[in-house]
Design goal:
Layout (H helix, E strand, L loop, with lengths): L6 H4 L10 H8 L3 E9 L5 H11 L5 H13 L6 H5 L13 E2 L4 E3 L3 E5 L8 H9 L4 E7 L4 H7 L1 H11 L4 E7 L8 H17 L7 E5 L25 H6 L13 E8 L6 E9 L1 E3 L3 E5 L3 E10 L2 E3 L1 E3 L3 E7 L11 E3 L6 E12 L7 E6 L2 E14 L6 E4 L9 E14 L4 E6 L2 E8 L1
Parallel strand pairs: 1-4, 1-5, 5-6, 6-7
Antiparallel strand pairs: 2-3, 3-4, 8-9, 8-16, 9-15, 10-14, 11-12, 11-16, 12-13, 12-15, 17-21, 17-23, 18-19, 18-22, 19-20, 19-21, 22-23
Bound molecules: guanosine-5'-diphosphate.
């Protein structure tokens, strides 16, 4: 055994304070963390709304917003707020609310929010998938103006809602936008709310997890500040920010075994192997031994940052930077899963998933995406078509799965990857998303 662990003698193991992380967490319970994606039809007003939200939160100033907005449009890169807002310099940020440029993070009195994507129009779906695979909730932006809602429902409003739901995101905040263009018509808001409620419930969002806020992203009405337009007085519910702050991190049992997906792996002064990402489940502390999958190599936590602050420990939901020791950089890659060596995630080259089809599915080659991990594989079998709502078997061994339907499928991979039930995965083929869903 001595010969197998030469690294252990190179340097002393990091000192652990042997903290009871869960009681530390309870004691220090400060701000909660929540992550979200912003989705919706092209031109629904996603950029404008996010830009205005950050402006009203004093994360950015008006001049910077205008400048960056123009630049973004000129280079045609993206009309999304974050692409330009997040590119700013620290001096431009006001006190009280902070934003982390590298991680798309901003902070209010109660919550640290992470915006999980910064998509442009071109490559929106892959970005959204990466984001949705980690999101606690989604903001769906809808253009309420005449004809636009209807067009959106045929277009991306529907596709995006189904996609985020099939990725396991259960809470959705619907920002019914551009209400200034319909004179703040309550009737129009209710009409959209009714239609969307019906659609979202069919897509198996539970009513208690769906909220509707009438807003004008352009004028900043009901984002951070309540609308001062008398025509909007009928709405007395929560603002978008109040809805955001209601978000509870989803499905991250602190007591579950540690799981963290490596979003970035790089070299720093502190360590040749520094890994950043979000803790999906469990907790960790300085001195802990970790297992990196699929390499199966052990590493130790030398030091860490939790939500940008140096810390002794971190829990599920937090974004962390881990400085690792006793591991060679070749054993850690983006998309890897870092886990508890006592309760590791398994490696497998075959899995069964419940998939929402976006295209026709038959036995075929597919690229499997899980967060930032990509692996080549093949749909090998389709054991059943499932009822979209109940999940019950509707038909056994179909030859083909039609778009918009849900099926149980078996995928064979070309390599071993860390896999476990409940993971959110997406299948792509020829640059298109063909299916998304949860591992069984
Ligand atoms: P995105 O493609 O979803 O990011 O949409 P943009 O934010 O680029 O907005 C598309 C267009 O809608 C732009 O011309 C915006 O000025 C306009 N727009 C966005 N929000 C509002 C709003 O609340 N009211 C009005 N009147 N126009 C808006």
């Amino acid at each position: 055994a001595g010969a197998e662990e030469p690294k252990a003698v190179e340097a002393p193991l990091p000192k652990s304070r042997n903290l009871d992380v869960l009681s530390e967490f309870e004691r220090h319970k400060g701000k909660k963390s929540a992550s979200f994606v912003v989705v919706g039809h092209v031109d629904a007003g996603k950029s404008t709304m996010m830009g205005r939200l950050l402006l009203d939160l004093k994360v950015v100033d008006q001049r910077a917003v205008e400048k960056l907005r123009k630049e973004a449009h000129t280079i045609g890169k993206s009309s999304f707020a974050l692409a330009w807002v997040l590119d700013q310099h620290a001096e431009e940020r006001a006190r009280g609310v902070t934003i982390d440029i590298a991680t798309n993070r901003f902070e209010t009195d109660k919550t640290i929010f992470t915006i999980l994507d910064a998509p442009g129009h071109q490559d929106f779906i892959p970005n959204m998938i990466a984001g949705a695979s980690q999101a606690d909730f989604a903001i769906l932006v809808i253009d309420a103006s005449v004809g636009a809602f209807e067009a959106g429902l045929k277009g991306q409003t529907r596709e995006h809602s189904l996609l985020i739901r099939s990725m396991g995101v259960s809470r959705i905040i619907v920002a019914v936008n551009k209400l200034d263009m319909v004179s703040w018509s309550q009737e129009r808001f209710e009409e959209i709310k009714n239609q969307m409620s019906g659609f979202l419930s069919m897509a198996s969002f539970q009513a208690k997890n769906v909220a509707f806020v009438p807003v004008s992203g352009l004028h900043g009405d009901n984002l951070v500040h309540r609308s001062s337009d008398p025509a909007a007085a009928w709405y007395t519910g929560p603002t978008l920010l109040e809805e955001l702050e209601k978000s509870e991190p989803s499905g991250r049992a602190l007591t579950n075994p540690l799981r963290m997906t490596a979003s970035e792996v790089y070299r720093t002064m502190q360590s040749p192997v520094t890994v950043s990402g979000r803790i999906d489940a469990g907790s960790l502390q300085v001195g802990d031994a970790l297992l990196v999958q699929p390499s199966g190599e052990k590493a130790y936590v030398k030091s860490l940052l939790a939500d940008d602050m140096p810390a002794d420990w971190a829990v599920a939901g937090q974004s962390v930077v881990l400085h690792l020791s006793h591991i060679d950089p070749i054993h850690v890659r983006v998309g890897d899963i870092i886990c508890d060596p006592a309760k590791p995630i398994a490696r497998a080259d075959r899995f069964t998933m419940k998939a929402l089809a976006f295209d026709f599915l038959t036995p075929m080659q597919v690229d499997v995406h899980r967060g930032r991990l990509h692996a080549a594989g093949r749909i090998e079998a389709i054991p059943a078509l499932l009822d979209k709502v109940t999940g019950a078997v509707a038909k056994k061994k179909p030859k083909i799965v039609k778009p918009g339907t849900v099926a149980r499928i078996v995928v064979q991979l070309e390599s071993q990857v860390p896999l476990e039930a409940g993971q959110r995965v997406v299948l792509r083929s020829g640059g298109q998303t063909v299916a998304a869903g949860l591992l069984e």
